[in-house]
């Protein structure tokens, strides 16, 4: 029993752990993609709102560089989301005209993917010509922190599920083996009992009686003792 249990446990437990680990990996991958997709969607929505405001002013004849009210709009949008680094409006040459971070005004926009996740919206004039861009920058460090927290949650959940699954697997293997072992011992004990101690089978049909008689005859012939007829 011990050897059989060891073989079953060494086979089932690694498969159980591997299955849960693979499921946790797929779960985290799916959650990560969904989270990044939500961030990109939010950044694109902010950029589209500011782009619509700038294009409306352009349609009224206000040049992009003269839309001073954009500074207040950018500051309010930035204050609504603490994970944003900045929201910038640049002209066609890439020079920042307005920004939620005043120190960036007048500098050239540089997309640093290690520092920020960026989404843009192009600003067109009423004739469809490019006037500039809206750039929304989210903190990559904040995104990474949130993903690390998500990974830890998935890991702890998978670890608890793995512990429960291992306990259930051990019980599912050992309990049936104990019952089988008990039945085997019980059967071995009955084999050692004399025939008279076994429960009576009751009256047999003639066909079964003739079959048992033939078996007894053959058995007694081999054993060298006279056969006894079966009860019919």
Describe this structure in words.
Residues 191-202 have low confidence and may be disordered. The chain contains 4 helices and 4 strands; from the N terminus they run ααββββαα. It has 2 domains: 2-153, Beta-Lactamase (2-Layer Sandwich), CATH 3.30.450; 201-232, no CATH class. A hairpin with a 4-residue loop joins β1 (84-91) and β2 (96-99). It is 59% helix and 13% strand. α1 (2-59) packs antiparallel against α2 and α1 (2-59) runs antiparallel to α3 (140-191). It has helices spanning 2-59, 70-79, 140-191, 206-223; strands at residues 84-91, 96-99, 116-124, 130-139.
Question: In brief, what are we looking at here?
Answer:
This protein is of the alpha+beta class and 232 residues long. Helix content is 59%, strand content 13%.
């Amino acid at each position: 029993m011990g050897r059989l249990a060891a073989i079953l446990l060494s086979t089932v437990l690694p498969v159980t752990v591997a299955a849960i680990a693979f499921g946790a990996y797929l779960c985290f991958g799916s959650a990560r993609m969904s989270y990044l997709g939500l961030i990109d969607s939010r950044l694109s929505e902010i950029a589209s709102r500011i782009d619509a405001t700038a294009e409306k002013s352009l349609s009224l004849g206000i040049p992009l560089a003269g839309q001073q009210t954009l500074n207040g709009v950018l500051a309010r949008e930035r204050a609504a989301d603490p994970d944003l680094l900045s929201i910038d409006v640049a002209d066609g040459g890439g020079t920042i005209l307005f920004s939620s971070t005043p120190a960036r005004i007048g500098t050239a926009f540089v997309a640093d993917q290690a520092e920020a996740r960026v989404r843009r919206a192009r600003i067109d004039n009423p004739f469809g010509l490019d006037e500039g861009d809206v750039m929304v920058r989210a903190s990559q460090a904040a995104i990474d922190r949130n993903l690390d927290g998500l990974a830890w949650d998935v890991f702890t959940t998978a670890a608890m599920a793995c512990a429960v699954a291992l306990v259930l697997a051990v019980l599912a293997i050992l309990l049936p083996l104990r019952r089988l072992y008990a039945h085997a011992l019980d059967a071995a004990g009955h084999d050692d009992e004399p025939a008279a101690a076994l429960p009576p089978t009751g009256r047999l049909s003639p066909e079964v009686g003739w079959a048992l008689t033939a078996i007894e005859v053959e058995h007694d012939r081999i054993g060298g003792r006279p056969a006894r007829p079966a009860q019919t």
